[in-house]
Fold this sequence. Notes:
Blueprint: E1 4-9, H1 15-22, E2 27-32, H2 38-44, E3 48-51, H3 59-66, E4 71-76, H4 101-112, E5 116-121, H5 129-140, E6 144-151, E7 162-169, H6 187-191, E8 202-203, E9 206-210, H7 216-223, H8 241-244, H9 290-296, H10 314-323, H11 327-345
Parallel strand pairs: 1-2, 1-4, 2-3, 4-5
Antiparallel strand pairs: 5-7, 6-7, 8-9
Amino acid sequence: MTKISCVDLFCGAGGLTHGFVREGLPVVAGIDLDPACRFPYETNNDARFLERDITTVTPAELRDLFGDADVTILAGCAPCQPFSTYAQRYELDGKDGKWGLLYEFARLTEGASPDVITMENVPTVAKHAVFHDFVDTLRRLGYRVWFDVVDSSRYGVPQVRRRMVLLASRHGEIRMIEPTHGEPKTVRQAIGRLRALYAGESAPRDKLHASSTLSQKNLERIRVSRPGGTWRDWPQDLVSECHKAETGRTYPGVYGRMEWDKPAPTMTTQCYGFGNGRFGHPEQDRAISLREAAILQSFPRDYAFVPKGGEVNFTALGRLIGNAVPVDLGRAIARSIHAHLTSVSSR
């Protein structure tokens, strides 16, 4: 039997790790700077959590974590905010700060020499030199590299989420498996059976199934919002001043309701707020709950994010959920690696 060992850099709450675990790829450790990741990561996955700044991790430490495995896998999703369309207007130097985290990924790859590498990020990462430097480094080290933008909804995630996925191997050609779903899962299929809530309420048996409060003005706004509609459908007295201005007319997706029979929009770190995107529930007068957001990220319904009796902090949990690699996308990546390793072993 081949012994496989994986380390997940920038592991967050464990979306990618959980996808790997569910597909039988053993993950020995996740590394992240955010201490809030520890509880969900270790509670839901049979893996250690190391609270570390990735710039302080050494290749020797990675090799120790891999142990005596026959096949080693280094996975990671460097924080994607620096590569977002919004951030591009303010960040110019690709080798400093968060922009430089892919260089750290390359440094650890060169020092630890894993057999397989995978990376996930926003599609716009490919517009930046740091990404191409990363790919060039892998090729210089002898890896065969594949990368492309994939639609997560084609792999079972009930959400429109296009992501750049990279796969690289020392042992020959590797690529993403073909899409597993011809028709995307819908919001109704994902969250249609969850307990109804009003704004500001949390379910008694699942504190994560909690909806943020709404001001009186926003309650009036969501009551006149229709699924798939925009704030342009509202009476003029409910339209905010910033949207009446010319600069606001290009943001029709904020203050919107989701549609039952379509996939959800991309979950963000502020997906619990009605005014932050199309995050209104399709029919209940509230924003989606944290649990609903997690399910739309394809986390299992029972994935624990806080200890029993622990505080439900919308900002902290929204960050963990919105930043996560969708579990089912992680599963598809794991299946791709499995298929590659099977092909290699049969030669």
